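To whoever is on call:

I kicked off a structure prediction for a single chain this morning and the downstream step that reads the tokens threw a length-mismatch warning. I double-checked the sequence; it's 62 residues and nothing unusual in it as far as I can see. Pasting both halves so you can look.
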Amino acid sequence: MTTWRKSSYSQSHGTSDCVELASLEGAVGIRDSKSLSAAHLVVSAGDLAALLGRVKAGHYDL
């Protein structure tokens, strides 16, 4: 069984809507907590780390 996790930050701000992550064999699963039955993305841990680094560095207008 896959264990999905979301940031405790989302719960502390009165919303349960969040991106959830799961550790998969050799990869990371990403899904929308509002659509649990929808498809999810699977990326390598390195690709996720690179994406998060670029987001934190301000490369995307989020």
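Update from on-call: the warning came from a stale cache, not from the record. Cleared it. Sanity check on the structure: The mean pLDDT is 86.
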